[in-house]
Amino acid sequence: MTRSVQTLTRLRPSVPEPAGPEPTGSGGLRGGTGGAKGEGGAEELLAAVREGRAAAVPGLLESLDASARKAALTRLRALRAEVGAGKRATPPHLPDRVRSALYVAGAGCLPASATTAVAASWLGARDLLVREEDGALALAALGDRAPEWAADPALVATRRAQGPDQDSCLHQALSGVLDARLWEAADLVGTDALPFLLATPTWSTGAIEPRVLVERLREYRDAGVEPAPTDLAQALVRVARADPSAGRAAEEAAALGTPAGRRLAARLRGEGIVGATVRFLPRDEDGAPQRWWPSDRLVVDLGEHPAVRAEFPPAFRWLGGAPEAAPRRCPHRVEGRAEWATVLPADRELLAACLLPTLAHRVEGDARGAAEPLTALVEADGPVGRAVLLALAFGLGRVDADDRLRAVDGVLVLAARGELNARRLGAELAWLVAEGSVKPNRLADAARTAAATGAYRTVWTVLEAMLPEVLAPARPVRGLGEVLAVAADCVERCGARGEVAGLDALASGRGSSQLVVQAGRLLSALRQGADQPPTETV
Fold first, then answer.
1. DSSP string, 187-207
2. Which residues have CB under 8 Å from 125's CB, separation 6+?
């Protein structure tokens, strides 16, 4: 999907987008003139919240005057009980209900002169709200505000200061960043402490254009405002360092003469950038379950950056590196997957390394949605290394067809951009298929789907690199015939030629099984080639 110059077109589908990009401090946050509807409008608004009609809430808020907004906020006490009951019953629209309620809470806490669009930007944005638990707690803090609208300081302070502990998995760390931003916004909304949020994205991936962030910091400086720590940290992590304007923006940021400006300039110059490498421990020879599945053997090494741990708030300090690297199981419920990619939109390989534990966990299980972040991952900035390729490989082998389709889309997007190393992807698939972590029938389905778009040569290049290893055993991997059928079809369509180690011996075997038949078909196609030009479309 093409990047949008408007704010979070995909990630905030329930929020009406501004007519065009906002290049200065407001970051695309525009206000309305407000209306004069009273109690009737508040009733309609709260009905929309109860029903989870999040898309309708911003428009209904715009029609309310300040007194009606505060009345709606007071009514949230009763609605909170419904949210709690709904959480136990887990209705399908609960996240939209909580998000809608946060819109109402933010609008009710604003001064009478403020606009409801600003409230939406502070508390209703998809890049802020992730987990139902924290959304409901933030709603509680806002809904219980006294007439002077002062939040519970102990609750908010505790949640703002939280960071992952030594035993936290990477997905908890990603969710912790989003939670910290929600709580910081919940504490500041309505206080006039900040004119707007620095970390509001300008791209659909969650990234921020460098010069836009410079202008936001300039407005902060001119207004004599200090950035909120978590908001500034997220903005620095989100800034698009690969953007052509990054060099000029670094000079302008340094010229601001503020600590935040100097930190931005250093970030844009590539100082203190966090890296990650991934590796897998060998399987236990006795087949012990504690080191059998890929997720039990995965090790993610984050580079050591003491400056990151010193300068960033608690929720971000894990990016400065862990004292020791070891596999960390992630067996608990996973929430907020679709939003994780917006935390690290400028560091694709690091983001992929953080997503791998979830993608690798129980690849054989029936859990759905684990591949949700793949679309945003491939659209992010940064190099495509082993972590990204492994994320795609695990996605291609997922049980759920929709997850496999997301991985196929990711492969095709990278291929179209010239960023896909198809042979390296094939090499990763080879060992995953050989050890049984990725099933051939699921890989064949994904490869067939990709080839159907016209990407015959891309698919063949991946499979060509994978086949020698999986054909080598005395007893080839079960179900490999389907993969060979897709490979043969791709070779016949793209006219590839060459040899694949082990294919000749397999094709000359006895019998009429699909494995032998398709091996012979692929061997014949490779030897014959084709006269027609390639039909590659990506």
1. HHTTTTS-SS-TT--SSTTS-
2. 8, 12, 15, 200
Q: What letters, b where the CB count within 10 A reaches 16 and e where it falls short, cover 129-151? A: bbbbebbbbbbbbbbebeeebeb
Q: Which tokens go with 525?
A: 């196609």
Residue pair 179/134 in contact by the 8 Å Cβ criterion: yes
In the chain, the amino acid numbered 309 is R
Which amino acid is present at 280?
Answer: F
24: Cα within 13 Å, side-chain hemisphere: 6
Amino acid (one-letter) located at 196: F
- DSSP assignment of 407-463 equals HHHHHHHHHHTT---HHHHHHHHHHHHHTTSS-HHHHHHHHHHHHTTT-HHHHHHHH
What pLDDT is recorded for position 26? 35
How far apart are alpha carbons 270 and 256 in whole angstroms? Answer: 19
Is the torsion defined by CA of 89, 92, 97, 99 positive or negative?
A: positive
Would you state the pLDDT for residue 2? 33
Rg of the chain over Cα atoms, rounded to whole angstroms, equals: 26
Residue 110, number of CB atoms within 10 A of its CB: 22
Quick: pLDDT tens for 304-346: 788 888 889 988 988 887 644 555 556 545 555 667 888 999 9
In this structure, what DSSP letter does residue 286 have? T
Side-chain half-sphere exposure of 511, counting CA atoms within 13 A = 8
SS3 content of the chain, % helix, strand, coil (to 5): 55, 5, 40
Nearest in space to 121 (alpha carbons), one of 134, 137, 108, 102: 102
* Closest residue by Cα to residue 59 from 77, 41, 73: 41
CA distance 233 to 226: 13
| 208 phi, psi to nearest 5 deg | -120, 135
Place of tokens 């002169």: 113
Helix (H, G, I), strand (E, B) or coil at 64: strand
pTM: 0.76
Query: 10 Å Cβ neighbour count for 331?
Result: 9
- CA–CA separation, 362 and 329 (whole Å): 11
Ramachandran area for residue 28 (φ above 0: left; ψ -120 to 50: alpha; else beta): left
Tens of pLDDT, residue by residue over 442-474, are: 999 999 999 999 999 999 999 999 999 999 877
Three-state DSSP class for residue 239: strand
Residues 6 or more apart from 374 whose CB is under 8 A from it? 355, 391, 392, 395, 406, 407, 409, 410
Please identify every stretch of the chain with a pLDDT value under 70, giving residue numbers as ranges.
1-40, 54, 73-160, 165-167, 186, 189-192, 284-292, 322-338, 362-367, 511-512, 529-538
